[in-house]
């Protein structure tokens, strides 16, 4: 133990000597030192696009959801047959531990969404001791199910912190405008752009979800010849297909509606609906096809309006890239390739919109935290200058933050942003200790530059030890050990990188800035003294 302590103290003594030489050199070349750190700051800020941005870190929780949708009206037996094929693919993956299936209206999730016998959901749990990530298994299962004829299959990695909180898909683009046909054309263009953008998966458009319906077009000229009002024709057709309550049957306990309606097989037959007799005001009747045309068309399953304007939504998941890079690429391509008619616009929604709003709010929080710290320091130091020097630690700490994120492959997200806010209160502590001791030595009559060197040497050990204890405590957090540990890992990475570089800032840059302001104060004092003496001599 004594040998270890001797080795440690000897090594630390060499660090003290090296720091002393570095600090003296920095104080001799103050402008050059400031220039170097300013360049590092701008380089780190310019590296933000390389770091990447996303709303929440991608977690590997080992759960996969497969949503299967057959064509409308598919019998449950056919849906189950397709589910069996998907289950075979899932079980053939070595990492699969358990597969749970809910098919048809009996499944809770399916029944709540209004789906019927044509839908099913598979939940796949992966083995905890697997070597591949959940994202790799998801991509493998997508390739297996891609060519299955008939169903629409969506394979996604489930996450307890994913977009299930009302945020929507990672990529969500809302196209707004008055005409549905124009919206469908724009949606096809945007869907093609999103599908061809690297990093997108499971691209879907709300206009793709169609269902067959009968379209009745009334010929107003023919109707006027027979003196038939349009509403009467529409009412007769609606009554035949939807039914009309002719009377009510009173029982001992309730009233039962008696509805007159076409037989079920006739309601889907264009010819039989066209032969429906419409009574004329002058007596007699004519077939419906005489004054109207009937055809079967594919119509949107739902028509969504936002602010009383029709809206179509294109959504997608992100894989192998960060959300900000994907959205930037999509937006740049839409500006070049999509010509929006007057009255139409495209807005971002989903997780990307949440990310922008949250980052803006967190930036405001960080600024407010810095202001509060500055106010406290100003009251304690009874000065505005020394707290300002201490607060210069904060922007230059970002050099370590972004460099560490870049080296570890982490992204700028909510969790890492919270780590940056925490650094506002952490990195200034060492600078407070250093500045306070410099002021104390100067008050005792020490030369200003010598006071800086002595204070830095005296406070080096507590500053380094404080930094090391915090950094070592953050290492398990940064490693993201355990299932879902990736969620909190960026915070540890940010604190470690910011604190290490912040310590360098405290030990080298802050003393230089302190000396620069000291020199400026001395020059200002000398000018005042010289002006006063000249005034007295005059």
Q: What key attributes describe this structure?
A:
538 residues; alpha+beta; Multidrug efflux transporter AcrB TolC docking domain, DN and DC subdomains; 5-stranded antiparallel β-sheet; 4-stranded antiparallel β-sheet; 57% helix
Look at the structure and give the CATH class of the domain at 13-46 and 383-526: Mainly Alpha
Distance between the termini: 73 Å
Main sheet, how many strands, which sense, barrel?
5 strands, antiparallel
Look at the structure and name the CATH superfamily of the domain at 13-46 and 383-526: Multidrug efflux transporter AcrB transmembrane domain
Q: Count the helices. How many?
A: 19
The chain-level structural class is alpha+beta
Q: Into which percentage range does the β-strand content fall?
A: 15-25%
Helix content: 55-70%
Unreliable runs, pLDDT <50, ≥5 residues?
Answer: 105-115, 162-167
Q: What general form does the structure show?
A: elongated
Mean pLDDT: 82
CATH architecture of the domain at 13-46 and 383-526: Up-down Bundle
Number of DSSP strand runs: 15
Write the layout of secondary structure elements.
Layout: H1 2-28, H2 30-46, H3 48-51, E1 63-69, H4 76-92, E2 96-103, H5 108-112, E3 119-126, H6 134-145, E4 152-157, E5 171-177, H7 180-195, E6 200-205, E7 210-218, H8 220-225, H9 230-242, E8 244-250, E9 255-260, H10 264-267, H11 270-274, E10 277-279, E11 285-287, E12 292-300, E13 304-306, E14 309-318, H12 323-337, E15 345-349, H13 350-381, H14 385-391, H15 393-408, H16 414-426, H17 428-443, H18 448-479, H19 489-537
Antiparallel strand pairs: 1-3, 1-4, 2-3, 5-14, 5-15, 6-14, 7-12, 8-9, 10-11, 13-14
